[in-house]
Specification:
28% of the residues lie in helices and 21% in strands. By secondary structure, the protein is of the alpha/beta class. The structure holds iron/sulfur cluster.
Length: 377
């Protein structure tokens, strides 16, 4: 249970040298939190779910929309704050074991570049991490969908820790609603811990809540789901939402991709691309491919030309990501010059490519570095 968490925020000192320890600040929680596993959280419920709650508690059907407004727009943290529900209705909700279900982060660590990594209570004894990335007029939250991951990619800290459980829609929505600065978020990326398409129903419920008029009313263009490309689930995501899609590719050669990403065996990248070719990405919806660059492994002209060949004719862009070193790994990052040459060659081949800026590397918050925390140790 995460009651009364101590909120530790290491503050980088402006004058501190690189070797000085960050200062720590303790923030008293502003509301009481209750574990989502000890109650029935209301956050994470779609309008249909809230209608069922209303019926169960003898409330009129229109109370569902009222609750949605309180939960997702006014962002209340206690049932008693829903003041346009009758006292009796609020008492009934509590009687039936419902809580708002909001939980504050347990800790936070701030990078020298302004990125903040938050630790939240997860599942299976493992906490999960979310990363807040401010950038000029944007503020993006990188959301986790699972504690650990089943996909076992060789370059990823999350994959290394194994799989500990999938988050509910409440666990996903809690990150979005409870992260400090939540009201000013402009974008969401499902690129945190876990494979979103390995936990699709709660991810779809969260997307419905975020994009529906009765919920947060965001445009789906503000949301990107990143995936290794589980085929059946990818088709469902493409058919039922309008969010942007990012596919982790990392090598155009199947045997090399298999060594980096064991899922290549079950979901060959050629099948993923064939599926994507059936959809239109020329208008509102964006398709991108994430290509982590490893020194001497996938960073030469041969890989670049094969990648361009593979993606030819698809309306897409390629995001080149420098590999972030993780402990006990022989993998290394290429130089900036090599990455720029790769990008320029792709662009010359007619494939739009950009080098993604690394954020939060000093706090282990960059791509592939999220590991959460084991509560059982
Ligand atoms: S890179 Fe993504 S899919 Fe692969 S192990 Fe890490 S979290 Fe899972």
């Amino acid at each position: 249970m995460a009651a009364n968490p101590v909120f530790l925020l290491p503050l980088p000192s402006k004058t501190a040298g690189a070797n000085m320890l960050p200062r720590r600040r303790v923030i008293t929680p502003t509301y009481t939190t209750m574990s989502q596993f000890e109650s029935q959280p209301l956050i994470g419920l779609t309008l249909e779910g809230l209608r069922k709650v209303a019926a169960e508690c003898g409330m009129p059907p229109f109370s569902a929309k009222q609750m949605a407004q309180w939960l997702y727009v006014k962002r209340i943290t206690e049932i008693d704050a829903m003041t346009d529900l009758s006292k009796r209705a609020r008492a009934k909700l509590a009687e039936h074991g419902f809580t708002v279900g909001r939980q504050q982060p347990l800790t936070a660590a701030e990078s020298s570049d302004g990125t903040v990594k938050y630790l939240f209570e997860g599942v299976g004894g493992r906490d999960i991490e979310s990363v807040y990335i401010p950038d000029r007029d944007r503020a993006t939250l990188c959301v986790s969908s699972q504690a650990g991951c089943r996909m076992n990619c060789s370059f990823c800290m999350t994959g290394r820790q194994g799989f500990h459980g999938s988050l509910t829609a409440a666990g996903i929505m809690n990150q979005i609603l409870s992260v400090p600065g939540s009201e000013s978020l402009t974008n969401l990326v499902f690129m945190g811990m876990g494979e979103p398409l390995d936990n699709l129903p709660p991810v779809l419920e969260a997307i419905e809540i975020i994009t529906s008029k009765w919920g947060m009313a965001w445009s789906p263009k503000r949301i990107t789901v990143s995936t290794i490309g589980k085929l059946r689930e990818l088709r469902t995501l493409l058919d039922t939402t309008k969010v942007h899609i990012a596919i982790s590719i990392h090598s155009p050669y199947p045997t090399e991709r298999l060594a980096l990403m064991p899922v290549e065996k079950a979901f060959p990248i050629k099948d993923v691309i064939s599926l994507l070719r059936q959809y239109d990405f020329s208008h509102q919806r964006r398709l991108s491919f994430e290509y982590i660059m490893f020194k001497g492994l996938n960073d030469d002209r041969r890989h670049c030309l094969e990648l361009a060949h593979m993606l030819k004719g698809l309306d897409c862009r390629v995001n080149l990501i420098r590999f972030h070193a993780i402990p006990d790994s022989d993998l290394a990052a290429p130089s900036t010059e090599v990455m720029e040459r790769f990008r320029d060659t792709l662009n010359a081949q007619g494939i739009t490519a950009t080098i993604r800026a690394s954020r939060g590397e000093d706090i282990m918050a960059a791509c592939g570095m999220l590991a959460g925390k084991n509560r059982t140790i």
